[in-house]
Amino acid sequence: MLLEFRTKNYKSFKDELVFSLIPAPKQKGLDYSILHEKIASKKYKALCSAVIYGPNAAGKSNIIGAMEVLQSIVLRGNIRDGERRSIPNAAVNSLELIPNRSYHLAEPVHFSIKFIEDGLLLEYQLVLDLGLFLEDDYKRTVLSEKLFVNERMIFSRENGLNFEDLKVIGPYLNNEFENNANGAISLARGNLNGEELFLMNGFKTMFSSKLVSIVSNWLEHKFMAIYRADAVQLIRRFSDPKKKTVYVEKTTNEAAQLFGINSNALGYVVHDEESEARLYSLFEGRQSLPAEIFESHGTVRFVNIFPLIINALLNGGTLIVDEFESALHPMALMSIVNLFHNNDLNKKNAQLIFNTHNPIFLNANLFRRDEIKFVERDENTHNSIHYSLSDFGTSGDNAVRIHGDYMKNYFIGRYGAITDIDFTSIFEDVLKEREEV
């Protein structure tokens, strides 16, 4: 489960962003939102959900984008550009899009992630020199790289490579490591590559492939950062697809019927000329049409994203979705949130984090104050800041009390992260210009 994500000098977040799922102190109520994990003799807590508010272009999507970029860099194992392809988050493959554009001299880009997986508390920190914004021919360098396990530093990469306490990960070290420890350390120090992550290369090969596997498997399969969820299109792949075969997934189809479909069922169809299955609306008499033709946009989008919700709940994943509410009815959204808040169903410590403009979630009976997050952008510098409702405290003029009217207070500007938009003057000018012609 995710505890904390940090970044600095990532797009609109010039200063450090700390996105925490560690419960804030002195927060009472809604205890079902608290996840518990015990490591050795120490207990850790995390929030099972978070909702992020802010006006358009404030930087909400940049939080999720930064998470997706770190995930991609670690799994790729280097800071070279990835394969050039059309994806919603272009910064995943074009790292020159990352640095804040206000800098005139190159400043480091920071990433840090802390999570619990397989009975271990893991923290990975990364500092990169990526040059300036849009400087695509810059010689990039890993400036710093650190790995912590159960709050003990394993290695640090800063002006060289240092190892702290490898005994902490004794059961995870590669076979015969103890017999070759000095040689492995010397070889690692002499073969550092400025563009490659030591974690995914030398450390994996010479020190602990088991530990790196835990990190990479969590990032790849359980840390599901979905940037621009309206563009999500899940295609079911089958190892040996049978042509002209229809696959109907029972759970997803039942959920789609509750959500609302125009056909008898939804299924994945494999055609002769294709090796992948596509979502189709199915009718009596074995007739079918591509779902995007016959079903509503909301239905198709729901079916595309529902398997990720199942995955998170069944496997204890962290699902992070940009514009989660796009084309979905508020009642469906409330039901999904309640799945993660249900201790009888959420047995694997799954988490749901999403951006939204829908004020329905500004509700003290649904979210704790530390689960409600805001992003605000300075109109002069265009830089973003992030904070939680719990940061306001419970006393004073700006107090936020547990049973307060969060929605009302948000719309009157008490919490910030809202913009007063009035298009009247634009249309007045248009009409005036037309009258003068």
TrEMBL record:
Organism of this sequence: Cohnella fermenti
Does the record bear Transmembrane helix in its keywords? no
Report the GO molecular function annotations: ATP binding; ATP hydrolysis activity
Q: Where is the ATPase AAA-type core domain?
A: 50-362
**Cross-referenced InterPro entries, in alphabetical order?**
ATPase_AAA_core (IPR003959), P-loop_NTPase (IPR027417)
Mind listing the UniProt keywords for this protein, alphabetically?
A: ATP-binding, Nucleotide-binding
- By what name is this protein known? ATP-binding protein
Which Pfam families does its entry note? AAA_21
Q: Does the keyword Transmembrane apply?
A: no
